[in-house]
Amino acid sequence: MQFTSIAFLLFAALTLFFYFALPKKMQWGVLLAASYVFYLFAGARYLLFIAYTTLVTYLIARWLQARADAEDAYVTAHRETMEKTERKAYRAREKKKRFRILTVGLFLGFGLLAVLKYTAFALSGVNAVLALFSPARVAVPSLLLPLGISFYTFQSMGYLIDVYRKKARAEQNLAKFALFVSFFPQLIQGPISRFDSLASQLFEPHRFDGFRVRSGLCRVAWGFFKKVVVADTAMVAVKTLIGNDTKYSGVYVLVLILLYSVQIYGDFTGGIDITVGLSEMMGIRLAENFNRPFSSRSTKEYWRRWHITMGTWFTDYVFYPLSVSGGMQKLSKFSRAKLGEKIGKRIPVYLATVVTWFLTGLWHGAGMNFIVWGLLNCAVILISQELQPLYTRFQARFPRLTASKPWEKWQMVRTFLLMGLIRSLDCYRDVGRTFRLWGSMFTNWNWGGLFDGGLISFGLSWGDWAVLLLGVLLIWAVSRQVGDTPLRERIAKRPVLWCAVICGLTLLILIFGAYGIGYDASQFIYNQF
Amino acid sequence: MKKKVLGCLCILLATALVLGFAQALLQPKYMTSAREGALIAEYYNETDRSHDVLFVGDCEVYEGFTPPTLWEEYGVTSYVRGSAQQLAWHSYYLLEEMLQYETPKVVVYNVLALKYGEPQSEAYNRLNLDGMRLSASKLRAIRASMTEEESFASYLFPLLRFHSRWKELSAEDFEYLFHRDRVSHNGYLMQTEIRGGTSDITPVPLTDPSLPKTSMEYLEKMRLLCEEKGVAFVLIKAPTNDWKYHWYDEWDAQIAEYAQAHDLQYYNFIPLCEEIGIDWSTDTYDVGAHLNVYGAEKLTSYFGRILVSEFELEDRSADASLAAVWEEKLAVYRAEKAQ
Prior knowledge:
The structure holds two protein chains of two kinds. By secondary structure, chain A is mainly alpha-helical. Chain A has two domains: 6-208, no CATH class; 209-286 and 430-529, no CATH class. Helices cover 74% and strands 0% of the residues of chain A. Chain A is globular and about 85 Å long. The longest helix of chain B is centred in the N-terminal third of the chain and has 25 residues, at 2-26.
């Protein structure tokens, strides 16, 4: 069931009705039932996978909790008789045991994701190696990829690690835990929520709050606008440009980079707006996933503003643990001894960064393009870090220039284009092909053709361009409305204005949206991850 | 509070009006091109719905039978509710709807579309369904007709289908925003051009000689509906000389057998072309696929004789008020033919 389908609108309306009409103690039950019905629409067989992840995570977390409780009880019981060092040693032993349990949980959880998502990619790699030596090939199976598996697996595994770290207590009620894993608004494209911030909101009763409903609906409508009017209009051109790259090389690669940036921004932030808005209507506040990413002045800043919950997930559960792991400590010592303090201390941090970005790339998809995408992001961040002293000197030399608005804008444009360039690996898929097309921007100087009918040759009419341009301007203008109170809440406080905004957005979506026959059915890009 | 509610109501009303206006503007008008699209809706303009004969079927009926000729020669009133690629279920639901408005003496169904057992194309569905007024028959027709890519809601709110036409609006869309011109003569779409010829391509042999089960089920439903209403149900196959519209002997035998089993009249006009007087060098506008007005008049004249003799249709030309209406229709018909 697509978020932007009539079926979903009816489904969401019905869910909201039952959510508020039934007794409050049944609210979480309504959400659980709705979430499983929603998932059922994707295919009954997919339920098996989400049920597996739910059950495995639930049981392992309960096991971890039981060990942790026993450990605490033992320490409390023996507080008087145990020495501090003895207690520390006992806790360390117990932690090791819990770590083994966690490892089993992570293996079972990520194992399913790895098998379903990466088997074909891994075996294709094996075949590529085999091809160098013999004609023998391994059969590559075609496995189904359940909807949203990357999101719910990461959310579940994050919870497991939190329980291991004693940051969260394991949920006792399996049905309630099932809701945490399957909460339908965020099931297929995030945000990746943390148990400690989401669970209590899901389980506690919420009264109907007209203001929250108005504010949430405003955000849902805005999400629809971004997705259906802006992202899907751009998609028509993006598809044509990608599908005909021999014809559309040179300057058209730049056009693709710009259009794909618009598409993915409208698509992903639009989807998140629908998710957050719908949750808000139910009184549930989800984590924000974006914070004006295209106004970032550096790659590092960009990644603090784009897909925030994924970034923090990798930071908290991969980068930090890896950086402080025993192996890294040893490597740090070794590299400092061999390469000196200055270079040596960088080695473990950089290695952890590379591993984190490699995994981030892999999370996005099973393909070399995603791995290269991750590693290029990593390279840009590390190079920027290495060049920091140079920037500092430059700033000191030209303080007025580097503090000026044009300089700030230049940094934004530079970051936007750089991120767009790297992101185009997601479009062309084949790494070699992408690099060739990047090269063509400098070798195939076809700017003339662009303004000689070229701009309307890949699926966009002048009318579409106008809609796209005005849509982007509107998004930009709205994104600038930052303040203590979000714009939608300011609108929701004034019912007549709110009504006008909802009606206006509905009209714009219905008339200028890229939907229905004549447009390819377009699912959200992040549903595929 | 009162003010706020009133303000919201005004906005909602204004939105509904804008949506209504946008829908009217963006829907295709079918006035200057693809005029077939306007045929289905024209039926509702009929002031006198006491037709003796109703025709249903695909292009072969709205290009093959001219109600003005039937009136002029036999004093028989008729209406052709034909449309482009009108499939069996379209015909059934259109007939069901018409029989709510009137009870004719004879219903004539052209059997060519029985060869299709599944919905064919969204574009033709639109030509068949968009013109229907909202009714239970229309809702059932939509359900039966939709291809996989279509949505039910887009038939109820055509704006959902035609919203992207804002990029291709023409003067026609504004001119016919709130009204339509007549394009047919009681459902007959006149073609005066002469483009004679014959198809020299041999039709490919059939892999499965039987007509699809679904379309035969709808044929049976039409028969039962007519039986229930006490209306004679007649099957015909209009003449054609194009291999694309070839009517295979196997299909012909199947229909003949069906007609015999249910005591229906079935007229296949293909072997009767010579007797009817059809000359494929002058009586077609598209090299034998369909008849032009000259061919249609010959066929109507021939079939009118059968209708009058077999179904005892009386000559109503003595009815002064009816005659006045039909004389007007004839005048318009003659004028267009003379152009």
